Amino acid sequence: MSVKSPTPKFAEETRDTLIQEALELFARHGYAGTSIDRIAEKVSMTKGAVYYYFSSKKEVLIACYQLQAQWVAEAVGAVPETDNPWDDTLRLCDTFLDFVVSNGRHTMPLQEVITFLGWETWRDIDSSYTMGTLARTISRLQDGGWLKPYPRNLLNSMIYGVLVEAAINLASSPDDYTLQDMKTLIADFLGGMRA
Length: 195
Description:
Elements: H1 8-29, H2 36-42, H3 47-53, H4 57-77, H5 85-103, H6 110-117, H7 119-128, H8 130-143, H9 152-172, H10 179-191
Helix pairs in contact: 1-2, 1-4, 4-5, 4-7, 5-8, 5-9, 5-10, 6-7, 8-9, 9-10
Pfam families: TetR_C_41 (PF21351), TetR_N (PF00440)
DNA-binding region: 35-54
Organism: Alcanivorax jadensis T9
C-alpha cells in the first residue's frame, strides 16, 4: 500500500505551522536546546514527517529565520515615506529597534542565528529582507545630498551593522542599555555622516 503525498495546500499549511512552532521553540530554548524530536512533538507529528518538509534542523532554522526577517521587514516597510528622507531614516531605525525590544521573547537572538547559520547564509537572508529597505533609504539620502559621498555599499553595510549590533546588545544586555540610549546613539552615528 502506497502512502499518498499531501495536497499542495495542506503541505504548505503544515510547513507553515512547523516553521511557526519551531521558531517559538528556537526563541525559547535556543538552537542547541531544540531538537527535531521536540519540534515533531510540538506539532503532533512524527520525526519522519518533519523530515518530509525539511532535510535537517539547520534547514528548519533557515526557514524560521526567513519568517523572522520577513516580520522585521514588514514592520520597517510600514514606516511611511515623507518628503524628509532624514526623518524617515531615523524612524526606520527606531522601528527596527522597537521591533527587537517588543518581539524579543518571540524571536531568535541574532547572535545565535549568525552562529548556527554562518555569516554568509545569515547575510544572504537579511539582504533579501530588511537590508533592501535600508538600501532604498540610503539611496534617497545620498541622491538628495543628505549624506557625505561615501560608497553606497559601504554605507549600507556600516549602518546595518550598527543596527544589528544595537539589536544584539538590547537582546543580550537589557539592563545595560535602554532603548532610548540605542536610538540616540544611532541618530548621533548617522548625524556624523550628514553632508
